[in-house]
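Justification of computing resources. Each target in the renewal requires a structure prediction run like the one illustrated here; the chain below, 307 residues long, is used simply to show the kind of job we budget for.
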Amino acid sequence: RRHTRCLSDWSSDVCSSDLMPYATTRDGTKLYYESAGRGTPLVFVHEFSGDYRSWEAQMRYFSRRYQCVAFSSRGYPPSDIPKSAAKYSQKIVVDDVADLARHLKLSKAHVVGCSMGASSALNFGIRYTTRALSITAVGAGSGSHPQLRKAFLLSTEANARRFETLGMPTAVRGSISAGRIPQLLKDPRGFAEFGRFQSEHSARGLAHTQRGVQAKRPTIYQLGPKLKKAKLPLFIIAGDEDDNCVEPGVFLKQTCPNARLWICPGTGHTVNTEEPALFNLMLSEFLQQVDSGRWRPRDPRSVLLKR
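Resulting structure tokens:
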């Protein structure tokens, strides 16, 4: 596997071909990643409909001060796409984050995840507490609401079958979920890029991810008791027009004394791509407080209702 990069200047095009960077996980799956910058490690974990490219605005901004790493999860090109459904689970994808960090010799890192990646980030913080400096969860909680759980599971299976039957890009053509509408309206160009990236994914990888990861992961409410005991700095982010994730975000804030919550106005599911400037500003403030030792849990005297 080779990756060709072309750098343009005013007078000519200079092209170079480099071996693509891969990290090998404990089960032999190879994960493609990109690393930029130097400093404290900052690892980004993408959503179901995204890949490593979803974090480009953050890679450019934060690599000025951090060692930033973005990767494509198993099942997402150019990472490996295991044929066996048994190689896709919440536990496995969380271990993948740890294996990537081990490959890069990162003893500790800030971990930032969006949607599916937010679930991985939260579970990473629970299982690999000593390896995380902080956890940021963006758009966490889809499928968590008890009254909507059955519909979520039915939709997950229907999507998996759609990927298997129609293949890519037909399976995603014309499909717009409610949480994407705000970006479609405010940023058609960004939304078109999102659709282009999604159409390049693997139908098999997406189907296995839907069944093995999305449908079987613990809900936000199930994670609550463990996160309540966690001492890691936790930043919860949700768009106020992302109906699946606002309530879980509030739940996490009320449950976890170590959490802070930011709800971005007029915004849908993927705050980092829909409002990158605001997102970068808020995340930067959080990371600076953690890195400077000024972050602290909520003072219990400020709590009106004990939970």
